[in-house]
Amino acid sequence: KEPAATIVEKLKDVTSYEGEDAVFECRLSRETTQDAQWFLGDVPLQSNEMNEIRVQGTRHTLILRKVTLEDCGSISFKVGQHTSAA
């Protein structure tokens, strides 16, 4: 069983204007097959035309495309027992 990954680089708060993209990045202690999940408030996010979720090694990136006022709120990233929010 693989050891749990931890979050070594936490999310940073991002301010963006309506119509811009907002980019959130998080880095883990190791590459993992554990489920990593992004949330806007309590809503789990999936990769689609509005959100792009990328994983490059230990770096996890969320891009919210052309944000609106409705996208305002807390973004969180969870892996295992660890959470980071911005």
Automatic annotation (TrEMBL):
Kindly list any coiled-coil regions of this protein. Answer: none
Q: Which GO terms describe its cellular component?
A: cytoplasm
- Give the main localization category: cytoplasm
SUPFAM superfamilies tied to this protein: Immunoglobulin
Where, per UniProt, does this protein localize? Cytoplasm
Keywords from UniProt, A to Z, are: Cytoplasm, Disulfide bond, Phosphoprotein
Q: Name one Pfam family in it.
A: I-set
Q: Does the keyword Protein biosynthesis apply?
A: no
Domain Ig-like, first and last residues per copy: 3-86
Record's signal peptide: none
**PANTHER family documented for this protein:** OBSCURIN, SI:DKEY-31G6.6
The protein's name in its UniProt record: OBSCN protein
Gene name of this polypeptide? Obscn_2
